[in-house]
Design goal:
31% of the residues lie in helices and 9% in strands. It is an alpha+beta fold and 458 residues long.
Amino acid sequence: MLATGGCVFLSGALGCNVNTGDGTLMAVEAGAALSGMEFSNAYAIAPAFTSVTKTAYYTYGTFCREDGSVLEGAGSQRGRSVIARALLSGRVFCRLDHAGEELRHKMRLAQPNFFLPFDRLGIDPFTQRFEVTLLAEGTVRGTGGIQLTGDDCSTGVPGLYTAGDAATREFICGGFTGGGSHNSAWAMSSGIWSGRAAAAHARSLGASAATRRLRPTGPAGPADGHREVVRAVQREVLPYDKNYLRDGSRLAPGARRAGSDLVVRQAIPVRSGPGFGAGTGGRGDDRARPLDVHRRAGEAGDARDAQTRRLPGAEPGWPVPPARRRAGRPLDVTAARRRRKGGVVIELVSAARCVSCDKCVRICPTDVFDRGADGVPVIARQDDCQTCFLCEAYCPVDALFVAPETHPRPEPPDERGLHRSGLLGGYRAAIGWGQGRTPGAARVPVVPLRDETAGRKA
């Protein structure tokens, strides 16, 4: 059963550096098909100085250019393409000025990590402008993935089932899932369905299960050499103008490169190139099948009746817009993102506070820490920090601090200053973790989303 998540192509989006398409590659090697890879170009709004891609609250924002003029049509729900176009020629700023005082308090309770970078930089996002960018979220917020052939999350390969973001979700959400309820419900439901089906399949094999002949589906990759593959894929899937603001003139050259150069030729043997080639849907058998709703600008003509297609397995009579598939088109990052490396990073492990419990070492999803000789964790791989703040949340003595800047500081932060300012341990307190505190889930209010289209000109 594959539940390895989607593919975000190392764009730097919050918590997504572990979503590298490995499961997609495994499924392709085993003979499964991909579906909906057209929908791998989801982008999220983020402060330009962080990787925090939580976009719900931007419905309360006003977007503007550097000179202060309002960017008409920009927004979280229906105006991200406006932001993308503006970012190609300049900087974009935002202020969450449509949220009243009472709502601001609720917003902080509901999503404390959204405000973490602002608080640590001394920015009030409700009253001060801050620069924003768009970060690619690939098939985590887009819906492409391993094609499903049954309601038990089967893949067409006997005994292979998939769940969560590794599977296509186009039947449920079309081309974009957003976050929260959609993804949570799908993760839980598909996990149950695929788990039951996998167990039933295993039982059906009976005694023959122990005598089956095993064979590898793909070769192991070399210890190095994957970086060139990663860079080649990112050149096609990260830039806004290639991936988000799609049209034929930009897609055709990328399709030719994806089908002929090192991306496809090396993505399979170079396994440590995180399944990127498979994540783009750049396999010939996938390119040939018009499976999904197309997503690109500049579509000519309007012959909907003549050009309709049906999603595989869809109910009769469920037409979808013309399918004009192109191979290999996922994510993006902005020009501001290209100028920097990494995101918010872990900066401090307090030896004075640390009790050598190793919780941070065990909980870190990208293996940033090593256990030191004296028992105090060492920040061994700082560039791999994906700013999930799990280490801060799990540390029982508030010995860790994740800084808000996008680059490591030249000097370690002042531990005493962090303590005096309330920043050391502040996130853990905000979410209510720790003895004598009320967990955040028990006090989180419902925060309604604002209708961004209200008052707009037609």
